[in-house]
Amino acid sequence: MATHARPGSLPGPAPADRRVPELDPALVEEWQGGGGELVDLFALARERLGGIAAFRLGPRPTVLVTDPAAVQHVLAHHPDRYVKRSHRARLLIGDGLLAATGEAWQRRLLQSQFTGPGMRRYEQRIVGAARTTAARWASYARTGEVFDVGAEMRRFALDTIWRSLTGHPLDPGTERELAAVPAVVAAMPRLPADGAAAEEAVAAELARIDDVARRAIAAARDGAAGPDGPGLLHVLTEAAGTRPEYTDRLIRDELVTLLVAGHETTASTLTWLYLLLDRNPGAREQALAAGAEGSAQRRRAVQALVQETLRFYPSAWILPRCAAQDDGLAGYEVEAGTDVLVCPYLTHRDAELWADPEVFDPGRFTTPGRRPAHPGSYFPFGIGPRACLGQQFALRESTALLERLLPGHTPRFRSLPAGAAYGITVRPDGPTPAVLGA
After folding, report:
1. Burial letters 247-266, b for 16+ CB under 10 A, else e
2. Could you tell me if 370 and 363 are in contact, meaning their C-beta atoms sit under 8 angstroms apart?
């Protein structure tokens, strides 16, 4: 069997004839016959061959990357060699930043909104959405009403991003229309491979999304600021005055991209967190005992709950790339045109990197030396120049909500999801009905 690189260390340049070790086709056939999830095939490849492995589902091998140093090589050091191909969500997000490649001006404009002073602009909007959710939960606690935790997290995340985009709280009519966004996201793994057929299958949902976007963009162009002031849509429409590339269609694509990236991912993370706390109730008590309400100590402990949840269920469980040129990766040859799949989901669960990786332990993120030092060991939002711009926004909104919900409410689940569904995000595969207890 071919040797493989150990986590965190890269051998020298690849000899021209040293191919990435490939999983036995018989094992791939066995996996296909068993109807397993794609992540099961990835786990098998990593177990048999290590942090850089190949498998073949078509005529060409696909290279799976979970080794931290190789992760950094692909995502951080050489993003020009490993580029995005057509994004599977393009029928929904069009040419928004998530699917775009190489548009530095596009990234710079949005980046300014999610770092430093830009983030402070959204603080009150995040707090407003968190307070609204906390008030609903107080009502659930009084009445004993059964509610769905996942639906609540989606509602909160959608309210937060809508306030940030428009300056307005989410109203019931817009909420109903924007239910089309998660509907399309959930349908994507089952859509036809043909682009036209896929678009036709979700045409009604796309039309509803386009209608909401059209109205919101028109309001922003008219200068109609909400009670929280102008939103991010105003920034985009103003940019169109100096950048003709920012057509109404591209602004629509950016709006929908932000709805997907800032809504689905945060909602999934918060839902998983509550499911993990249900199995590990002591983690909630430890976070609350870390400091008084509003203290920096408690905030760090609550953030650690989120960070550990993201270790289990990263925002993007897989990051697809395509080799734009021949390259040497961890001592192996990667040919131009090869599909390369970077998988934070498996890197985060690697026992050679993380002690007891299947144990939910937020202390990894509060105690020095408890987590791997290599930056390619933990990257729930990606790393390098194409890392998710909204990671600070996501952490802040999650923390703001949990600081208000954790002290007073513990969901008691009536039933639990059977497992996970692996699509654009990793989400619970089923409803999460619960009632609230003190």
Report:
1. eeebbbbbbbbbbbbbbbbb
2. yes
In this predicted structure, the answer to whether residue 84 has a pLDDT above a threshold of 50 is: yes
Positions of E strands within 218-354: 319-323, 327-329, 332-334, 339-342
CATH number at residue 193: 1.10.630.10
Rounded distance between C-alpha atoms, residue 91 and residue 418, angstroms: 29
**Spatial separation of the C-alpha atoms in residues 85 and 261, rounded to whole Å:** 18
The size of the chain, in residues, is: 438
Residue 424 has pLDDT above 70, yes or no: yes
Q: Which helix (H) or strand (E) holds 63?
A: strand 61-65
Average pLDDT score over residue span 22-45: 93
Alpha helices in 188-247 (DSSP H): 195-201, 203-221, 232-239
Give the SS3 label for residue 427: strand
Structure-token pair, residue 81: 């060699």
Residue 107 confidence (pLDDT) above 90: no
* Cα pseudo-dihedral 312, 68, 326, 95, rounded to 10: 40
Give the residue numbers spanning the domain of 297: 25-437
Sign for the CA dihedral angle at 88, 89, 91, 94 comes to negative
Domain membership of residue 258 (yes or no) is yes
* pTM (2 d.p.): 0.91
Asked, for residue 15, whether it belongs to a domain, the answer is: no
50 dihedral zone (left: phi>0; alpha: psi -120 to 50; beta): left
How many CA atoms are closer than 13 Å to the CA of 173, on its beta-carbon side? 4
Which is nearest to 333 in space by CA: 84, 81, 85, 101?
81
Q: Give the three-class secondary structure for 132.
A: helix
Pairwise CA distance, residues 434 & 438, whole Å: 13
- The Cα-based distances of 213 to 162, 314, 396 in angstroms read 11, 28, 25
Per-residue pLDDT, averaged over 123-131, amounts to 95
- Total structural domains within the chain: 1
